[in-house]
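Table 4 source record.
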Amino acid sequence: MKKGIKAIELCGGFGILRTAKIKEAVPNEIAIGVVRFDNHPGLDFQSGDQLF
């Protein structure tokens, strides 16, 4: 069995653009998962794309 990182789970607050940048930065063998909210309740119902 090969050890190492197999997946990364991200908060929806990262937004679509930041999630895509992370996906580009890691090898294809690492799955990127994300909990998605159109407007994140923890960010005053805004998207991470709008805030960051």
